[in-house]
Amino acid sequence: MHRHAAGVLWVFAYVLLVTSPLLLMALRPAPPGRPFLVEASIALGFVGLVMMAAQFALIGRFALLSAPFGIDALLRYHRHIAMLALAFVVAHPVMLVLHDRAYLTWLDPLGGSWAIRTGNWAIYAIVLLTLLSIFRQRLRIGYETWRVTHAILGVGAVVSAHVHIHLAGRYTDAVWKEAVLIAISTVMVGLFLYLRFVKPAFVSRSPYRVAEVRPERGTVWSLSLTAVDHPGLRFVPGQYGYLKLRSPYTLHEHPFSLASSAERPDRLEFAIKELGDFTSGIGRVPPGTAAFVDGPHGSFSPDLSGAAGFVLIAGGIGIAPFMSVLRTMADRGDPRPVLLIYGEKRWDDVAFREELDELRQRMALDVVFALERPPDGWTGEVGFVNQEMLQRVLPRERFERHVFICGPNPMIDAVERALVNCGVPERLISAERFELV
Ligand SMILES: Cc1cc2nc3c(=O)[nH]c(=O)nc-3n(C[C@H](O)[C@H](O)[C@H](O)COP(=O)(O)OP(=O)(O)OC[C@H]3O[C@@H](n4cnc5c(N)ncnc54)[C@H](O)[C@@H]3O)c2cc1C
Predict the structure, then answer these.
(1) Of 45, 144, 258, 298, which is least packed with CB atoms within 10 Å of its CB?
(2) What is the pLDDT of residues 221-255, one digit of tens each?
(3) Would you list the domain boundaries of the chain?
(4) For atom 7 of ligand 1, which residue has the closest CA?
(5) What is the CATH number of domain 208-297?
(6) Which atom number of ligand 1 is nearest to the Cα of residue 259?
(7) Residue nearest to atom 51 of ligand 1 (CA)
């Protein structure tokens, strides 16, 4: 199915899903005389719950769902829509209190009936989960610790909310209505549990071994993996995989762009920049270590574009997916022209610059380096990639080339704006963001 059509269908399915509780309520309207604020608060609570449950499916990395949008867009949606779901869930008790101040006594987490307590726990869990997500970096909570708390609080909130709905008994007069609500949450949470516990079992069937860990310029490491007793991973250049070392069930799984040629699926290579715990230890991973790759993911690829040529704009380690693009095009003898604009701080930090020289001999590649702190005598571009620089270096046939951008988020935002100002149509601009969470 065409990607846009699939996207429209998914949006329609999502809207239907989150409004389904309202349809259930409408099937048997409230008896006359029930206060509007109370009924509206129940409706918002139901919708908020289903939205929260749907959050699990959004982060499930399902190819069918992510293909039309891209996983980064789904994760951004997951983050933004969480605020609306939170607002709906919190509005539920707030509207009850507005209706009658007596409801204030219900907000004690340990007080009241079990129906009230479980409702409170669900709301407190969702509020805590949201606060931890917003302030994770400021509170210096490690990514893995945050992920575990996020999952526990999320599942806990959904289960608690269902107990609350069951005990409160409003609009769940018929068993089938409650069954529908429970089925929705079970499927959504089940998709997430599948990702954590079942998918790793599939991933474990295609193991790899670390063949080599090579230092590159600018605290970047090339990590090479060889497939053990299987043909490897079929991917298109620009895609990425979740890398796990030693065990497929480890919580330490990290997304990295495949940097190797897609023509060599049996030997995968990643270009990994030292940043935190995991990436700083890559240089010490001994050859022979077991490795697992959950992928390929993503739709950031010239292979899916079909344009007559490409402009690749990399900031720092954003070069990783483009190394795969260039290595693949060179291996395939692809004659289409490519302009690589590669921004880095210093000349000595420019990873793969020698290999880029070699690639220039093997394909129609032009490279423009833009350095923040150039060495003495530098005659190339200086500073951040901006509109002025793009006007100067973009090829004349810029309206026919597909532009791919990968780098830090502020750079991507600025370059996207600059490209549009230079007249590049938005449909010919694609970006890959490494900072998703
Ligand atoms: C699609 C994609 C492709 C990427 N490709 C590359 C690449 O080719 N080369 C490269 O060097 N880096 C790449 N990254 C970034 C890389 O995943 C992070 O730098 C790495 O996970 C940091 O882990 P750490 O433990 O060293 O650092 P930490 O200090 O633990 O994390 C630093 C930041 O990295 C992010 N991060 C950490 N773990 C994860 C995770 N499991 N999932 C998502 N984000 C996480 C979080 O924003 C975190 O705040 C990519 C990221 C994404 C989303």
Answers:
(1) 144
(2) 999 999 999 999 999 999 999 999 999 988 889 99
(3) 3-199, 208-297, 302-433
(4) 256
(5) 2.40.30.10
(6) 8
(7) 434
